[in-house]
Amino acid sequence: MAVDLSTVSGFPNGWFVAAFSDELAPGGVQPIRYFATDMVLFRTEAGDAVILDAHCPHMGAHLGYDGVVKDGCIECPFHAWVFGTDGVCTHIPYQQEIPRKARLRAWHVAERNGMIFVWHHREGAAPSWQIPELVEHGAQGWTTWGHSRMDIKTHPKEIIENVADKQHFPRVHRTHLTRFDNVFEGHVATQITEGVAYPRPGQKDTFKLDATYYGPAYQITKMDGVLSSVLVNAHTPIEDKLLHLRFGVMIRDTGDRARNEKFKAGYVDNLTKGFLEDVAIWEHKVYRKSPLLLKNDGPIGKVRRWYGQFYEGG
Fold first, then answer.
1. Pick from 86, 140, 149, 82: which is nearest to 115 by CA?
2. Residue 245 β-bridge partners
3. Whole-prediction pTM value?
4. Using one digit for the tens of pLDDT, what is the confidence trace for 162-187?
């Protein structure tokens, strides 16, 4: 029986982007909050990204504020208790014996494609699939990511429906589609699109793209248009109806660094404007359990059934 997305609570199972890699240097510490949980994100001197629950079990200090990375661990700013990457307390400066309960939850973390991912599962299960390597990332002939982030007051299920919502493109994004196909396989959903975009008055871009979700919240788009590019769209829930939407772009290296940066900045600006067109609708719409769908709307029912799998369990 399909999950009823109109009544789901909590957050879906899967990998979610917690940060872009270049936002966290070795020894860096950041407070983050996702899945209605305060966490601390830090990078060891050796370069490993770690996410733990944020509040020290001793007297509740938040390790993301003035916590310090030392010898591959993080030291609490309040009483200098030290916690390893597995969340277990390894040192208390004024007592040799360490209580068994002196530990923090350690989240599953993966760092791939220039992003730091955190695994969330409603029943606490370990990852059942992995984020694939992106061959363009770090490859000769491609730039690094240009990226940005915005806060959106909506539920992730609203964003997911863009995968199948064919008819919003001409009205919302001024895009004429000549091809629109969808493929759903396991935890992967792909949109194959061709058409012509009119991003601004007087501009025209003929494009072909494959946009693929790997799980409920991380989408890679490979597009051929004015420039060949790779786009990322990743949303991570903060609270029930509040999320971070991260997006970024890599382009084929033009051989001119200043030109590369100009093109990336232009892409990020266009992506921002494009998402804001959706946000204006997402933040004010209601979710219809049984929408009045027409033949040419796109496979909305299929994308809902696909997305529902990430709420199974818990």
1. 149
2. 150, 235
3. 0.94
4. 999 999 988 888 888 999 999 999 99
